[in-house]
Design brief:
alpha/beta, two-stranded antiparallel sheet, 8 helices, globular, about 220 residues, about 10% strand
């Protein structure tokens, strides 16, 4: 049995008890046995463990985990302490500095954001080594779409940050009358100059939170 704590066990019980999730588990059991898969199986659900359900203020959507050794640890865009930040994360730090003046950190570990109330959710929670998007069709899309819908339905005044086509495709799952949706190009070097740089999503997030009586996110890592 998976134990996440922070109110997630109750919220996600219908998902974990479903036939769809049993199929994901069976697939992952075989994948982890036969291939190198990231993140470590004990880190798959870290985004929930680090951000209790009642504490979620922001949902930042990624695509799938980093697929090189030592990078992924269950939080989208984040890498473990001591691992060089990938190009997309470097661009995120550049926009962070331009937008809210945060000094680019030495580490690419975003755990502090998670503890501030930023749910760092990938749309697929696992990946086979060196094969981006390889687990996209194993059932994770159903699972994470269900999580997004659940958050949209049960909470109010969340900020959903959608960077890139994969994340932006989730927009129909979100009630725009209850939440703020921020969307733009992906921070990848291939697309960052098409609207990611200058998006000011960090300051816009905090302006919205403060306008609704919520504490802003301390983005400094």
């Amino acid at each position: 049995m998976i134990r996440l704590g922070g109110g997630w066990d109750e919220a996600l019980a219908p998902l974990f008890e479903s036939e769809n999730y049993l199929k994901i588990r069976a697939f992952l059991k075989q994948e982890y046995a036969q291939h190198t898969v990231y993140p470590d199986m004990f880190d798959i659900f870290n985004c929930f463990r680090f951000t209790p359900f009642d504490n979620v203020k922001v949902v930042l959507l990624g695509q799938d985990p980093y697929h090189n050794a030592g990078q992924a640890h269950g939080l989208c865009f984040s890498v473990k302490e001591g691992i060089e930040p990938p190009p997309s994360l470097v661009n995120i730090f550049k926009e962070l500095k331009e937008d809210v003046g945060c000094t680019p950190p030495d580490s690419g570990d975003l755990t502090k954001w998670a503890k501030e109330g930023v749910l760092l959710l990938n749309t697929a929670l696992t990946v086979r080594a060196h094969m981006a998007n390889s687990h996209k069709n194993c059932g994770w899309t159903w699972f994470t779409d269900s999580v997004i819908s659940l958050l949209s339905d049960r909470k109010e005044h969340l900020v959903f940050i959608l960077w890139g086509g994969n994340a932006r495709s989730k927009k129909p799952l979100i009630d725009k009358n209850k939440h703020l949706i921020l969307e733009c190009a992906h921070p990848s070097p291939l697309s960052a100059f098409n609207g990611f740089f200058g998006c000011r999503h960090f300051s816009k997030t905090n302006e919205y939170l403060k306008a609704h009586g919520l504490a802003p996110i301390d983005w400094q890592l």
